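New here. Your pick:
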Amino acid sequence: MATTADFRNGLCIEFNGDLWLITEFQHVKPGKGPAFVRTKLKNIKTGKVVDNTFTAGVKVTTARVEQRPHQFIFKDDYGYNFMDLNNFEQVTLNEKLVPFADLMKEGQEVTILFHAETETPLTAELPTYVELTITYTEPGIKGDTATNASKPATVETGATISVPLFIGQDEKIKVDTRTYTYAERVK
């Protein structure tokens, strides 16, 4: 058990029968009335983010989760196969547990979240930025940079990302995995 004073980003709690990750929190002490804590909670299974307010001092049940480094090996009919980098055991995850599959290439390192008591995998997370090579994009038109225009580009994993007009084919770019957006060109 924990109270609202123990809240921190990344804390996993049991709330409404599901496991939720605290992504943001803010303690509020208004001039009138009791203190409370505003939170943004992310459902581990569905990825849905909700806002919730807890009264200060309320007890919540925490869930013990562990983050373990894995490497993506391949995809087959059963799902996505990962290898544990510590003991080399393989784990197969269902497509629903891998929300960013179209940004993942073979050999990519990911972090898999495990429920510590039951040893069940909950979700997989990519690093914040991944480097991908553009396999196809239309050529940019010279002088068409007056506006903050963008064009679609297909990367090596098959995903389509919006990139600035000056980015060409066969260039390496960094992609933000949280928002599926272009971050910068890799030199």
Remarks:
- The chain has a mean pLDDT of 89.
- The first strand starts at residue 2 and ends at 3.
